[in-house]
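User: Structure tokens for this complex, please. No commentary.
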Amino acid sequence: MPEAWKIEIDNATKTFLDGSVEAFRSLSLGVRANEVLCIVGPSGCGKTTLLRCVDGLIPLTGGRVLIDGQTVREPSDQVAVVFQHFGLFPWKTVYDNVAYGLRLRGAARSEMARVDEYIRLVGLEGAQRRYPYQLSGGMQQRAGLARALAVHPSILLMDEPFASVDAQTREILQEELLRIWERERQTMVFITHSIDEAILLGDRVTIMSTRPGRVKETLDVPFPRPREPAAVRAQPEFAVLRNHIWEQLKQQAA
Amino acid sequence: MADTTIPQEGAQARPPSATTSKRLTALAPMLVRAGSLVVLLGAWEIYGRSVNPVLFTYPTAVFQSFVELTMNGELWRYLQQSLVVLVCGFGGAVVVGIPLAVATARYKWLDYATDTYVNALYSMPMVAVVPLLVLWFGFDVSAKAVVVFLFCLFPILINTYQGVKNVDPRLLEVARSFRSSEAQLWRDLIVPSALPFIVAGLRLAIGRGLVGLVIAEFYTSIAGLGYMIVKYANSFQTDKLFVPIVVLMVLGVVLMEALKQVQSRMAPWLRQTDEE
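Assistant:
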């Protein structure tokens, strides 16, 4: 590709326990600016580890990750992560949790107005003073999303963010994420087990293979934006894509 | 009970017996407890009166002694002495224990340097050290405060250490992804996370501290509630003997209950498992 990648994973390898466990090996992948790249793969293919390496939370054993051409060594303030386990602090209110990233940076008063803005955006208006244990899973993840958005990252890394909520909430959150993403169109890397979710949300879908993890194939998703979930699912290409991806994954799951 | 009820507009009429029995079910545990206390005290009273007063006593006699000792100020004097020792010893353990625990949790080398001694001293019955401490520090308040200090220190030390070490690693990851500095990490994550553990340590420490207090007062035999016990036991005044015992029991209950309240208010999210 002649254009510059926003995120470039260059021949990355990650092993644990002195090489006896290989999460992924010689993995190369690029993410364009303002695109949503969904990564699907079977359990244990290293996609969660990969995400953490991209964020700089875990160091690579070999190869490198570049963001805007710079090697990643530690988490950057351009990148925000949304975790599967929500990761909210139980002793902080929704407001304080969403404000967390901003406060760490010593945000000015004007910037702090964003907190209420994003709380409203994710549909948690009125819940500012509640604590995480008083919220449902879906609401907690909305808070996690608001927290990530509040720091105005240029890159969002989503680690199976909807895997811990029930199916109906999941669909609602998918639709909301599509709507929210339309506003700023951040570069997004979205890890999921769900093929449907990957096709619905992604501009491109990368299929990973397991043991060790590598990129098997990357496909373009032809649906235009803004996307409406029911309409997208009704397209014949949706089923075609889905079957193709499923076939690719099935080969390894056996 | 006459079954005449006046139905209210739009509302379901409820016979009076239904609400009364509901209230009774709610009160039932308390009534049973009160009832068992009455039975116990009653049996004690009856049996106590028939036994030799040198060996045994009964509730009304204890109550009379309680009134007498309060009126002449003797109870308050000894109680005050005990409280001073308790506060100094416990306070000292908090001031030394919590920072030390935080430091050992934070700096591995300090942890390795101290863990053998901490574990050994925690496991050891501190009672054994009391005569030695009296030898070193004498018979007055400072010796007893040191005893209480040592009894209180190790639960505080160990529980605080555990609290700091057991921070949820997933939350640590969140903090790192947002580039938290170490100071911010302590403020936002480690201290709030460790607080319930610390309070648990304080509860254990109070329990142990009371034991240490009484033992030290037995051994030094000069002042405090422990001394009161020894004095009246030695002079066979069993009715007066029960007074400091009951006071210590009440003191223990009050302190434990107070800390339990603090603990439950502090981390409401931890009680989730049975409330959902």
